[in-house]
From TrEMBL:
Residues 1-27 form the signal peptide. The keyword DNA damage does not apply. This is Glycosyl hydrolase family 32 N-terminal domain-containing protein. Keywords: Signal. The keyword Nuclease does not apply.
Amino acid sequence: MNPIRLSSFAALILTTASFIVSPVSTASEMTFRQLHRVSVPEAHQAVAVDASSFYAISNRTIGRYEKGTSRPLSKWTAPDGSPVIHLNSGIVVEGRLYCANSNWPKSPLKNSIEIFSAETLEHLERKEFDETEGAINWIQRHRGSWWIAFAFYGEANVRRTYLVRYDNEWRKTGTWTFPESVIERFLPNSNSGGAFGPNGRLFVTGHDHAELYVLTVPETDGELNHIATVPAPIAGQGIAWDRSDIGTLFGIVRSRREVVTMRLSHREEYATLKQPVQWIRDENNPVLAPRKGEFDSTRVMNPWVVRAGETYRLFYAGGDDHKKHRIGVATAAINDLTQWDRTGPLFKTGAEGSFDANWCVLPHAVQIRDDRWHLYYTGNAGKGTGLSAFPGIGMATSSDGMTWSRSGDQPVLTPSGEHGDPDAIGIAGGSVLQVRQKDGSTQWRFYYTGCPTTGKPHALNQQKTICLAVSDDAIHWEKRGAVMLRDPERDYEDIAVAGAVVHQEPDGMFRMWYSAIGTRWGFYSICYAESDDGIHWRRGTKSDDNLQLSPAGDGWEKQMVEYPTVIREGAHLRMFYCGNGYGNSGVGTAISK
């Protein structure tokens, strides 16, 4: 027996401190939308997936296929005499495909994990288990541990089915059984598949039903908590969350030998928008442009507007000739947005090696109380590729909203470091607001941008999600996971959603403006969504319903429009946003019709 080699991936995810247990939407609101369905001969037991491929798994054969085209790439079949009898599931971890295997229904029962090269499907190693009563049905890698389900079959035995957590040395660190409400749906068979979703919830399947059971895992041994049963366009068997495409789940329909791709959604996502907005661009755009020889000589980006009497204070990030980005503020009379006075930079970037050593961008200033302001900003460390160069959100403080100082050298929010999380490799700002809750209390909410992936393909390099964190003091934040994901069915936001600006109206409704990247333009446009609770967001019934500003003309905003900030101005709304090159051409404004 060869031991499993633990890679650097294990060390990486051991740094994750705790579970993120809130789902993309409240469990009772979850739905799944079918995206694709393809017939492949190996789709008999399960499916696994990585950034480029999906793996259809049958008892003794695995087929690797290209995502998107379903083109066959490689295949493995167990040779005569092989102990690989009954492959049940698979997960790809750092280039290796780990498959659960048993010889069920033979006796004595034998269990193993079979390990393959994900690229070639060459068989590499085997990990055998002493457990000989329950059959291994699925394996997961989650939060620095291995998770394996042992299934028992039949009316008399299915209640013995249980889940085990192992450390890196394959020592048991926790054991959980399934609740009766789920067992009843497993019968007359047992648990077939399981996978941890993008925000830490466990999704499991039975053998035949077209549904998923959503569970939470208690911190100590005991019984799993059943929080929802969600219909899905599959028929039980092994499932796999696509950790390179947050919110996308793969499953199979065994009787038809089909692999099904579906997307996590909720019941209100495509409901009618109640207060959509149309915008009139200002004829003087851009109203705030870069200045030669100043700290904002190459870029004016990420506007954030605050009103002080009859004056607008427009916080923004300026780029200089040495590729440093720092934060400044421009002020103008509300009735004349052609004349701006600028101050900045408000503070220096961090010291060499710090999270904000290279850039301080995406400012959003919030008055916490009469004598205290917070300015949240996104740091760029000057190292790393793509969005991994953004390792944290920092904070500066002020007593008057004018004079600022950095609040220490540590960020208030950082990436999770856990592959498959919506903020796994990078993190950036959005907006902070104090929310009025139904019980009369208030809560600080931070809608921020999570960066889950990196890579050469545009969809990996630019994928972003909108996440939520909550706080009682606006300093210490608890992550609640993603609240909005890219929409693969709308070509202006099928790659990324980011930079959410959220308002709560007097009647309690939430409104969000955000930057979206899609294949239609390849760059940013500005979109809109609404919510009754700030968690479940409506995008409108049909494509383009929520598209509010798109690239236009042949000048400063022909390539992209992005990073909106919105403020009420009398009977209208005022938006500031930036254009080409992430602000190379400056900031413009628009007013609602």
